[in-house]
Amino acid sequence: MKLGPFILRRIFLSLFVLFGLSILIFLLARVVPGDPARMALGPRAPQEVVDQYREEMHLNESIPVQYYYWIKGIIAGDFGKSLMSRRAVIDDIKEYFPATMELVIFAGVLMAVFAIALGSLAARYKDTLVDGLIRLGAYFGIAIPSFVLAVIFVLIFGYFWPVLPVFGRLSYNVVAPPTITGLLTLDSILTGNWAAFWDAIKHLILPVTALAIAGIAQEARITRASMVENLHKDFLAAERGYGIPERKVIFKYLLKPSLIPTVSVMGLDLAGMIGNAFLVELIFGWPGISRYGIMVMLRKDLNAISAVVILFGAVFVLMNILVDIIVAYLDPRIRMGNVRGT
Amino acid sequence: MKTSRFVSFLKNGISLVLVAGLLLGLSLISSCAAPSAPTTPASPTTTTPLTPSPTPTAKHPSIIRHTDTFPANIDPAIGTDGVAGRSQINMYDTLVFPTKTGDYQPWVATKWTVSDDGLVWTFDIRPGIKFHNGDELTAEDVVYSMNRLIAIGEGWGYIFRPLIKETKALEKYKVQFTLNHGFGPFLDSLVRLYIVNSKLVQANTKPDGKYGENGDYGVEWMQTHDAGSGPYMLKEIKREEHVLMVKFPDFWNGWDPNAPEACEEITIMDPSTLKAEMARRNLEISDYAQTWETYQALSKIQGIKVVSFLEGGMWMIMLNTKKPPTDDVHFRRALAYCIDYDTVINTIFPGSLLAEGPVASNTPGHSANLPKFNLDLEKAREELAQSPYADQLDKYPVELAWVSEVPDEEKVALLIQANAQKLGIKVEVKKIPWLTVVESAVSPETTPNATVVLASPAYGDAGVFLEMRYHSRATGVWSQLEWLQDSEIDSLIDDALITVDRDERYQKYAKIQEKLVDLCPSIWLCQQVMLNAYQAAYVDWYTANGQACPLMHYNHYYHDFKVYPDKVPAP
């Protein structure tokens, strides 16, 4: 009943977080060495052209005045023009963000399915060979960075046993569906282009797996630990006492409350993945927002840097709110009104 | 007991999910391993096959795919490097076209004349050339292209901005350029004037731009469209990802039946992905920025060869001649004798060629037989002894900068540091990002004593390169960290550049090069050799056949390639 006000309050507070982030990133982007106008126009552009460009982009103004122009634009939905692409940053974001979202959504599904399944399995067969193997696998999964996995996958599935595509989102000979959402799989379904759908799925397998493995390992361990901790709680003994089947006890009464830490960490992992996927995107030639973010930073594309960081921040905030909602669903204490206690 | 519980657990839903996932994965892998069927287009309006196969059974498309550096600023008034340059030469035409010998042949211009004072150049335009939308190319388009390039001032605009006084169309097929001052290599420079379709660009110009009545000069539209008449027309562009061009059937210069139907510039930044894509024949040509080891690995794949060629780039150490101790010529020469040039060309930049003075040997106007520096510590000591800094080396350390984005440069820096130390010269090696190099070039005080840099000419003329590198008016940018500011060199370059007669001009260039070697404002290390791995089994590339063009980008003029899809090696 009190979930609504709780979420509204979180959204309201998040606005302050984003505002603080906007100031921070705006300042940081401007203290990095290098003249952005010179970078955009090239070292041989005549000085008068550079000066004109600086004026056009308000780069001659003081930092507070620049910030004023920038934040005014953002409130109106305008992130300004990219210094490099000469078009609205929002257009760049529209082009690259869906590609990363598609990766993250599939990675999220993979993480949720396998982490919960493996964690449950390990908890259910605690201290057996099954548990040991899963824990060992989890250690490897956590220890090996996703970009290392990506390179290994490319070499195995792209070179030695070339069965999966290792570059881009679609094969050359496949006609892309018209852009509706930017998610190729979804757009393919919406337009009935099954060849593109199947091809897009094949292109997703390796990058998604490379991204998801660390999360699967991490969340499987958390799920296991949480389930093991709850395994001998009184409420489970009571369920068993009532003669409820063990499978139902495990999955209805043990798994559900044990998922709270898993969901919390998974939410942050997924949000972080949007910004941290750049090496995987780079290796697989994935035209995503994460790679774009790194590229604009290297080129000191001020408006684009700020927009990308704000976007990543907004995704974090939204993901946190989403996690709160899911946790509230999983934890009856929140639904019963013990909001502040959480 | 435990086993039986585990077996029972297998029956539950989680196990089913795992098994289903496994089966799905296996089915995907097996379907991927199978040859893919031709794809059915989604809708008739958007599905023109990009590369129709020559035979129904041929699976491989007739295409050249090449990895390149992005982003793609394909507007000929904006972009100059990497993918921009290669896209422009394939989508646009120029008045003249470079030959493989560094000379120029008629192209859009059929003939030309120059006034006696070298100030007025008149060109006859070839009638009947079609732009990609069917419009005819006329003198008005040349005028518009030049005015647009100069007004925008970016890209190659710096070449023409100080040079062109007026461009006018005398007739429908006759255009005239009037120069502000004599400029011998004007003809050479025209390979950077890409002719755009004026009507098309004007139709897509935003009226509220910063170029007065020309609005935004079509800058925004030209970022994602082409307005050219070249052999390939833009099919799709994603600025950070790829540029796909398809054959323009009405190209005025005709087509070889085996010319590629399409060409694509793509970005592959990881060597393992590059290797996999080349092995799978999804990529025809690599970029030139891979490590030696990667090229070695690629050359071992069946059907792939590594080709090397020169495009005029030179690795050098630019010495700040306005900052002690490198302001002394003897000190500079001493440093030049401290370098093991053999190590540079054999170990640090394998495959590169020893520099032969200030200009690359394949750049027209290069002077052969110039005195060369070599590793000779005795000579270095002799030179150092004549330097006013010889007795106070501790007080004057040499700040030697290398660009952090190019790790091999550090090896050069360490090489010179080690030998200089033997002479008592203290070299402080400093790693700086490219941005900082660009910024440091604004004044002699902020420019390091020495900086390892790669520089290339904009087009094939030694004088233009010498002007960029050593003339006083070219200081303040990264390409002249020497701050030479030598009035004699300035006047020699000016005099040479206004000389229209090529032989006479080249003789003047030779004198300048001799003088520069004597002044030693730079340590010329080696000539950059471009290495590209390519699919020799089914691609016929003129550059690999000894027909390399000395001009940057022009070794990727895809019209002159040939592709044989039926010769693609079996997997």
Description:
The complex is a heterodimer of chains A (342) and B (571). Helix content of chain A is 75%, strand content 0%. With 342 residues, chain A is mostly helical. Chain A has a domain at 89-298: MetI-like (MetI-like fold, Orthogonal Bundle), CATH 1.10.3720. In chain A, helix 5 (89-124) packs antiparallel against helix 11 and helix 6 packs across helix 9. Chain A is globular, with a radius of gyration of 24 Å. The model of chain A has no long low-confidence stretch (mean pLDDT 87). Among the domains of chain B are: 93-222, Periplasmic binding protein-like II (D-Maltodextrin-Binding Protein, domain 2), CATH 3.40.190.10; 310-528, Dipeptide-binding Protein, domain 3 (Roll), CATH 3.10.105.10. Chain B has a six-stranded mixed sheet. Chain B has a four-stranded mixed sheet with strand order 1-10-9-8, with helices on one face. Chain B is globular and about 75 Å long. Chain B has 571 residues and is an alpha+beta fold. In chain B, 30% of the residues lie in helices and 19% in strands. Chain B is built from 18 helices and 18 strands. In chain B, helix 11 (329-336) packs antiparallel against helix 13 (377-385) and helix 16 (462-470) runs antiparallel to helix 17 (487-497). At the A-B interface, helix 2, helix 3, helix 5, helix 7 and helix 9 of A face helix 1, helix 2, helix 9 and helix 15 of B.
Labels describing this entry:
heterodimer; A: 342 residues; mainly alpha; MetI-like fold; 75% helix; globular; B: 571 residues; alpha+beta; D-Maltodextrin-Binding Protein, domain 2; Dipeptide-binding Protein, domain 3; 6-stranded mixed sheet; 4-stranded mixed sheet; 19% strand
Write the layout of secondary structure elements.
The complex is a heterodimer of chains A (342) and B (571).
Chain A: H1 3-31, H2 36-41, H3 47-56, H4 63-75, H5 89-124, H6 129-143, H7 146-160, H8 184-191, H9 194-230, H10 234-241, H11 246-276, H12 278-283, H13 289-298, H14 302-330, H15 332-335
Helix pairs in contact in A: 1-14, 5-6, 5-9, 5-11, 5-14, 6-9, 7-9, 8-9, 9-11, 10-11, 11-14, 13-14
Chain B: H1 2-9, H2 13-33, E1 63-67, H3 82-91, E2 96-98, E3 104-106, E4 109-114, E5 120-125, H4 139-152, H5 157-160, E6 164-171, E7 174-179, H6 186-189, H7 198-203, H8 219-222, E8 232-238, E9 242-247, E10 262-266, H9 271-279, H10 292-299, E11 304-319, H11 329-336, H12 341-348, E12 353-354, H13 377-385, E13 398-403, H14 408-422, E14 427-432, H15 434-440, E15 450-455, H16 462-470, H17 487-497, H18 502-519, E16 522-535, E17 539-540, E18 562-563
Helix pairs in contact in B: 11-13, 16-17, 17-18
